[in-house]
Amino acid sequence: MEENLKVTSEDFQALPKEEELDAEKIAAPSLTFTQDAWRRLKKNKGAVVSLIIIVIMMVVAFGSTPFINHSELVKSAPQYANLPAKIPGVNINGLNGKLKQGGVWVDQYKANNVPDGKYFVLGTDYLGHSLAQRIIYGTKISLIVAVVATFFDLTIGVSYGIISGWKGGMVDNVMQRIIEIISSIPSLVIVVLMLLVFKPGMTSIICAIAISSWTTMARMIRAETLQLKSQEYVLAARTLGESPVKIAIKHLVPNLSSIIIIQTMYTIPSAIFFEAFLSFIGIGISAPETSLGVLLNDGQKNFQFLPYQMWYPAIVLCVLMISFNLLGDGLRDAFDPKTRR
Amino acid sequence: MKLVKVAASGAIVALCALTLGACGSKSSSSTSKQVLNWNETAELPTMDLSTATDTVSFDMLNNTMEGLYRLGKNSKIEPGLATKTKVSSDGLTYTFTLRKGAKWSNGDKVTAKDFVYSWRRTLNPKTNSQYAYLFEGVKNATDIMNGKKSPETAGIKAVGDYKLVVTLDRQIPYLKLLMGFPVFFPQNQKVVEKYGSKYGTASKYMVYDGPFQMTGWTGTNLKWTLKKNTNYWDKKNVKLSAINYKVNKTTTTSYNLYQSGKLDATSLSAEQAKQLKGQTGYTIRKAASTFYFQYNQKNAAFKNKKIRQALSMVVNREQFVKKVLGDGSVPSKGLVSMGLASRNGEDFATAAYQKNGVTYNLSEAKKLWNEGLKELGKTSLEFTLLSDDTDKAKNTTAFIQSAIESNLKGSKINVSNVPFKTRLARTTSGDFDVVISAWGADFSDPISFLDLFTSDNSYNAGKWSNAQYDKLIAASKTTDAGDTAKRWNDLVSAEKILMNDQGVAPLYQQATAWMIKPKVKGVIYNSAGANYNFKNAYISGN
Amino acid sequence: MKKYLAKRVFYMVLTLFLVATITFFLMKLMPGTPYSNQEKMTPEQISIMNKQYCLDKPVWMQYLIYLVGMLHGDMGTSFQFSNQPVSYLIATRLGASAQLGIQAMIFGVFFGIILGSIAAINRNTWVDTLVTVLSIIGKSVPNFVLAVLLQYYIALKLGILPIADWGGFSYTILPTIALGVGPLAETARFIRTGMVDVLNSDYIELARAKGLSKFQVVYHHALRNSLIPLVTLIGPYTVALMTGSMVIENIFSIPGIGEQFVKSITTNDYPTIMGVTMLFSAGLVAVILLTDIIYGIIDPRIRLAGNGD
Q1: Which residues form the ABC transmembrane type-1 domain (chain A) (predicted)?
Q2: Cβ pairs A/C, distance under 8 A
Q3: Entry pTM
């Protein structure tokens, strides 16, 4: 059935000029990729809090450099050894200088004849060093180790993985063999050899990390690149004649971002643990310097008697890790085009 | 779905095993009598007495094997396989009469030939014995070790089955003590040759002539048992039926096991020792080992006596052993450890005590340091302090670094904590400034320490040298060897020279704190040589 | 497929050869000597010992001897345990480490998948946050700290499980947990991320639209696809765990290879270091090959040859 509608020109009405323009206008402000990511990151409360915590920790740790230096670290006061935490005015067992010994809370400050005005907010270690001071310094060292490891992960690991996965064929083959060889030589052997070349300490640990830490990242990235390479949008970009470098930066990296970020979030603890492990077997950072790993390792040995020596560094490490991870989650959600809404 | 099912059944299996395991462990904890559960902190590397080098091996050998003598309390010489000893008037020939009826655990008789075979085997450079040097003084021993003479020329001879004649190049006043050290024990030739390269690599590739025999050691595992040896000649005096050894490398673990009753004895870490001091079972085991600074005299700074004195005086040894080590270690009185040897009731360490050499004196240290620097024409001195990488060593270096840097102006120390063997290698090759070395006596005689610092001794890596010292040590071995009083005086004077010149700066005498259940009785511990003797140990009560 | 495998096996041997070569020469650079008492040994004794361990020959000769020995499965004699062949040492120590490693991996991956899936399905709720925080804590507490805590509270205070030692399943539980928490946390995070991505994709929408139950969607579609990145991770991780975690073995007094390895490094026991390194790399290379094959099976999009175009 056809209904004849008679449409005349009177039925239409021209819009006023301004409205016409409005329809074409994009209401939201134009944002670059990073601006957009930043906007979405800000919405994630956990990530923002974490970011703030990390910034504070970094500021405290690195800002302490002028105050906690070698000559400060090397000072010891064995007469104040192994005192528990004491905060004036706080009367909670464990924070008032008392320590549980054989089931009874004993005031260690009195037992050791510590003068009245003297107190340590987080207690002391076996040489009478303030634990708070050592934790701050240790955090700094651990952060440095973490940053270095992340740097190598992001630079060598990511590019290596993308190239290997993208090129395929012979190139891929050779590159994968190299990874196999590198990851086959235990990092411990590398560290021991580094100790021969350099002195024990940061340099050798950093070199060992530089050599061996990025392989997992490279393998993960390669696997994911293999998958992405056959995706339509990559194909489209290729067909349009986009250069491989541009494809990698514009298409692969954003889509790999979730893997990259998660892997990075695991590199950080791994690096910190690697350092802690080295101190466990006795070739890590050497005294008077310290790191969170060293502190934890010292603490776990005395855990039964001086639990605070393990708990405080453990808490700092956990807070740091949780912050890094939540921030990482936030960053992933912010950068990953797939989760964009 | 499959995945879930498998997992569920897996969880059930796990749960069953869990409950079963729990039951099992409960029933086994009911202690049967006369069984001792002992902790070791390191594996047993070998049971071949010719190649053993470590304390675990020597302890095991001391309890499963027996030589001419057995060392009792305070290194007292007790009868072993020798029933009679005759020493020639010049002190160069020893004739031992052996016990008849002593048997190996496989039933063979223990004869003088077993000693001859064992000694020759150890001396033979092909055997790779790292303790063969203890034979120095036995006729031709040094030449055999150097490959210049055949092992058959060694000064040991069997006359019949039960007579052993030992001839010496020079007098060895402590020979009887040496006979209680495992390197001098007999070995059964038949068994050694039967097992070839496997000899001593597992409990079954061995034969024993001591109070116990070993079972359950596969060569690489972490537990084994010493079982009473029913072929032992004095078995009626062996009361323990078994000693179960477990290797737990962390003292946290072994102390947990001790608390739960799974172990009867464990050594403690410094912190544990400080906290457990005074509790029942807390025992201090002093070792005849001294930790000391060794200075590299090739470095001009350490050739300066004042610098050496300053470094020694700045260390508050009392505070150090009490607050940092806390495990019963004591400040050294000198190089020779306390309780090692005494004469007329006077301890060697007391006789040779030189207060200045080992005492904390901050103002004097500062003064000497400044004078020393002036003599050197320097305003500051940076050097490396080399030490082991154990917890104890690290605490030590941290304390010493702190003491020196915060008290001696212009000092800067780089601490280098390296594994034991690396430390040894660097020390031997002279690649150090100051090293914290340790020496444990192999037998209870001061010479075991003092021999180290003669000019040509290979352990004297710092190359400290003093002609008078060398002369005194030489005299104690030759002209005065037969005269106890003269020999004693030689050694005392020698140590005084070493201390006054600060050739080395002794820090502390090592001790280890243990928790030992009070029910364990009669364990003999000696500070030198093989430490433990369980022959007469027993358990009484719970 | 056959040709591909042959090629891969050839590469495997090549890799192992290179690792053996590199380790051998690195070992020659290590400081110190294997003898613990050499100051007291005569030069004659040292030269005889060097001869026995072939340390007197030129380095290239030692290298050849070592390679030929390797081919025969002879990895030399340990310095640390006198007269003990390295192959025997490894054989007796590997079992415990392997069992522990596999158990820890199964424990970690199994619970990791469950936790990760739960988090993904309930994403952005408190369940998700809880799982995230737990897995981060699991990952950020060093395993030696966890081991000490487990040993103290579970074994000593509650007395449920053995404190240390090796000898039955109950002895493996605490070390398994201490060792498995790391992989658990990692798996959970990977699964969650992977699954969130997958759950957003079109084919899941389709599956849902078809009326499949939530479980079926997750199990048949989402899980399988999110397992892919995990496979790359699990392989090397398992090898690393199997060849031993020195720390855990140390604390629970387990006769494993990891602890032995660290000790052989500090005592300059070159034959053992090389033996364990070779074992480790052989395992790793084999696992990587296996991973690539599994990859092809679970993800049809990837062709085995790995050269997509």
Answers
A1: 139-328
A2: 156
A3: 0.83
